[in-house]
């Protein structure tokens, strides 16, 4: 995946991607879609004030809304992956974005009831489950194998950037939209972002190789079993998926622990976002390095270094009280995470056959979202029971040992492809 031939290396990096118009179209559509996703989530929370409900249950309503938005990722992830393998990926991408945009645009016409808000959020999330694996499966169809690392690095960078930008500017942007566009300016703004993303994705000249009668010859349940069988047999792909699951679980736990961490380093509880933003900056920096100079890291144990770096940072957090050090460690955590996320996602894309990618990425989204629910549920109670230091040190050991085990189990194969 990362040969060191200079003539090949010269065709790598972001420069090669910026000359690839189909990929740039996909990337632009991703940016609009990701930003719209983040602002839409903020819009749902903001609209709780206007939708009829008991004031005393305001916090419970937020929790119910978040759970409802998360459920489709757990229940529909694998099914969406099977669907993606059976139908045109370009069509899935632009249609799902168009439908998401129309759902938001019709919100002003619907009754302002909490149940309506839940239905809209649930429906949007279902459509997202189909868009995500189609987007991931489309990348290898638009770029050459030697550019996959750069492409995934760029997508990771923009995904994190849209998260930071979307959550940072979401509320001011919605307020501006309301002041300029009137009562329904917020819904119009988010809806238009989705529609613009759909328009860009419609223009992608995506060509797929399809098996004859592939849509009717195999039952969806057979597809599901074929996907599971593939993951059981392909140790490399399943191991990479496991490493991504560990990575995302750590960040899920940190979203809960960041509130306490912020207080430890001198920030207010409400400023915990600075720690998460610093981690995002570190991931962007790491993804940019891997994307532009990935060929120089051939044969390097990047995931192992990433896990050990994250384990080190989690342990150091327990002894940190200075603001600058806390932010620096958080950025280092993000840098280590990029050494896991970018190579492992690239590995899955390259090692998975085209007719299996939708199923594999559907399983990936399914497994990751199910795994995320555990650290989100137990991080808070464990901190209350044992204290922040014990939880962080435990996480440090688990992450380090998990990384060593993952590398040891597949190191010979990984050294050939990373």
**Total tally of structural domains:** 2
* Main sheet record: none
| First-to-last CA distance | 6 Å
The CATH superfamily name of the largest domain is MFS general substrate transporter like domains
Label the overall shape: globular
InterPro entries: MFS_dom (IPR020846), MFS_trans_sf (IPR036259), TM_effector (IPR010290)
Protein name: Major facilitator superfamily MFS_1
Subcellular location: Cell membrane
Membrane topology: Multi-pass membrane protein
Describe this structure in words.
The longest helix has 34 residues, at 148-181. The chain has 418 residues and is mainly α. The protein has helices at residues 6-9, 13-18, 21-47, 58-75, 77-86, 89-105, 114-142, 148-181, 185-202, 214-217, 220-233, 235-264, 273-293, 302-317, 323-351, 357-386, 388-417. The radius of gyration is 21 Å and the shape is globular. The protein has 17 helices and no strands. The chain has two domains: 1-207, Up-down Bundle (Growth Hormone, Chain: A), CATH 1.20.1250.20; 230-418, MFS general substrate transporter like domains (Growth Hormone, Chain: A, Up-down Bundle). Helix 12 (235-264) runs antiparallel to helix 17. Residues 1-10 and 211-218 have low confidence and may be disordered.
Q: Gist?
A:
The chain is mainly alpha-helical and 418 residues long. It contains 17 helices and no strands.
Can you tag this structure with a few keywords?
single chain, Growth Hormone, Chain: A, transmembrane, mainly alpha, globular, 418 residues
């Amino acid at each position: 995946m990362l040969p060191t031939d200079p003539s090949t290396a010269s065709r790598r990096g972001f420069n090669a991607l910026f000359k690839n118009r189909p990929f740039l179209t996909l990337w632009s559509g991703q940016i609009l879609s990701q930003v719209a996703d983040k602002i839409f989530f903020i819009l749902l929370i903001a609209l709780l004030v206007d939708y009829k409900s008991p004031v005393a249950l305001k916090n419970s309503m937020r929790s119910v809304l978040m759970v409802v938005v998360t459920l489709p990722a757990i229940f529909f992830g694998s099914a969406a992956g099977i669907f993606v393998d059976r139908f045109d990926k370009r069509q899935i991408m632009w249609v799902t974005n168009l439908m998401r945009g129309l759902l938001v645009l019709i919100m002003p016409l619907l009754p302002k009831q909490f149940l309506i808000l839940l239905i809209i959020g649930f429906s949007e999330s279902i459509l997202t489950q189909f868009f995500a694996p189609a987007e991931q499966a489309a990348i290898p169809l638009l770029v050459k194998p030697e550019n996959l690392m750069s492409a995934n690095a760029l997508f990771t960078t923009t995904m994190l950037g849209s998260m930071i930008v979307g959550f940072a500017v979401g509320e001011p942007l919605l307020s501006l939209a309301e002041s300029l566009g009137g009562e329904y300016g917020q819904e119009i703004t988010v809806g238009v972002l989705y529609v613009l993303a759909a328009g860009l994705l419609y223009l992608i000249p995506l060509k797929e190789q399809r098996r004859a009668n592939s849509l009717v010859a195999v039952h969806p349940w057979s597809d599901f079993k074929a996907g599971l069988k593939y993951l059981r047999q392909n140790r490399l792909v399943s191991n990479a998926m496991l490493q991504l699951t560990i990575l995302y679980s750590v960040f899920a736990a940190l979203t809960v622990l960041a509130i306490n961490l912020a207080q430890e380093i001198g920030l207010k509880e409400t400023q915990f976002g600075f720690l998460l933003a610093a981690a995002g900056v570190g991931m962007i920096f790491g993804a940019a390095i891997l994307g532009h100079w990935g060929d120089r890291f051939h044969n390097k144990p990047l995931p192992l270094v990433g896990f050990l770096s994250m384990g080190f940072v989690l342990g150091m957090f327990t002894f940190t009280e200075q603001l600058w050090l806390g932010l620096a460690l958080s950025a280092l955590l993000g840098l280590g995470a990029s050494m896991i996320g970018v190579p492992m996602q690239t590995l899955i894309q390259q090692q998975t056959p085209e007719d299996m990618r939708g199923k594999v990425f559907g399983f990936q989204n399914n497994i990751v979202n199910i795994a995320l629910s555990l650290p989100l549920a137990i991080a808070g109670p464990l901190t209350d029971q044992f204290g922040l230091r014990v939880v962080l040190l435990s996480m440090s050991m688990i992450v380090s040992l998990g990384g060593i085990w993952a590398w040891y189990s597949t190191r010979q194969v990984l050294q050939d492809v990373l």
